[in-house]
């Protein structure tokens, strides 16, 4: 039983670390955000709300510069000020902003935050177990190999979540009448908007799928709806 103690400790440690990080993020979000009030965007958000049979979709403006959207563990959806400024500058349309919100609503509806907590704890335990096993055969570097393998798994799980949230967003945008064109057009702008240059990170370590793969998946869903 004692030989499994490090794995159990790693599992508990991963859970505690995730909850601590989530609590810290929630406090930061609460301190730096307020509800996003924009007439042009409100119209698009109401279309999403009607498609979901909700009175409204509440979106918060997170006062940081990076271009991003996010879903908090408590289910709130945020758009960063950096993203909103791109909209105000005419670089992003209101429909494209709605596609970001639809994607984050997908993360909320599909329980990705809760799943990520379980995944994070499990990955921490797996990293410890792999390091123990590999180090028996490859001393000193076993821990680095275990870490790399676990990071690959974490990236794969993250890409799975992104594809699922994309599919949810596509269905919601289709139902709301906004359509998936805005979702695809935003993806084509994404690298420029975020300042990402791609290619620097190997595909198996990327936490988000490549833009071309995401668009292809959306078009496959569109084809199913047209049958």
UniProtKB/TrEMBL annotation:
Gene3D superfamilies in UniProt: Metalloproteases ('zincins'), catalytic domain (3.30.2010.10)
Mitochondrion found in the keyword field: no
Protein EC: 3.4.24.-
Keyword Metal-binding: yes
UniProt remark on cofactor binding: Binds 1 zinc ion per subunit.
Entries under InterPro entries matching the protein: Mito/Outer_Membr_Metalloprot, Peptidase_M48
Keywords recorded for this protein, A-Z: Hydrolase, Metal-binding, Metalloprotease, Protease, Zinc
Domain Peptidase M48: 38-219
GO CC terms in record: membrane
Family under the similarity heading: Belongs to the peptidase M48 family.
Protein's UniProt name: Metalloprotease LoiP
